[in-house]
Amino acid sequence: MRLFLAIPPSPAVRASLEAAQEALRRQGRGTFPPPENLHLTLAFLGETEALSGAKAALAAIRARPFSLAVGGPPGHFDDVWWAGVTADRALEDLALSLQADLRRRGFLLEDRPFRPHITLVRRWRGEAPQVTVPRARMVVRRVSLLRSDQRDGRRIYTELAHRDLR
């Protein structure tokens, strides 16, 4: 199974992301994640059967709620366009400590800098879009362990566990 740990957006942040996706749809084509799949990935575990290790790492999170915001022009990696995320140092601390714990538990994670973002569209076809992600803020209160499945050509994410931040 394909697993990852992520922060689900609040309704206000999700509405901002959906508005940006609608603006993108008017300017080009691509594969747009449905609203229920929007998330900020903290750690991608890939194909693994080590569900108990992933749940243990999730349970070991020691973090307080913190503020996060989206907004401004989207960024991109090749043909993937994304909403940038700003947060206090707590977001990076959470992601890096979680990734370190997962590595100690034997997970092989990508070795690249953490760059927080929320994917708006993949396989973009069109000119560079003239879009601004509406500004929205949230307090991060939850981290989710998600399974990714492919069904009928669509990605379906299922929450397997979560950890409330306190």
Give an overview of the whole structure.
- This protein has 166 residues and is α+β, with helices and mostly antiparallel strands.
- The chain contains three helices and ten strands.
- The strands form two sheets. Strands 2, 4, 5, 6, 7 and 8 form a six-stranded antiparallel sheet that branches. It has a four-stranded antiparallel sheet with strand order 3-1-9-10, covered by helices on one side.
- It has one domain: Alpha-Beta Complex (Cyclic Phosphodiesterase, Chain: A).
- The model has no long low-confidence stretch (mean pLDDT 96).
Quaternary state of the chains: single chain
Work out the radius of gyration: 16 Å
Flag low-confidence runs: none
CATH architecture: Alpha-Beta Complex
As a percent range, the share of strand residues is 35-45%
Structural class computed from helices and strand pairing: alpha+beta
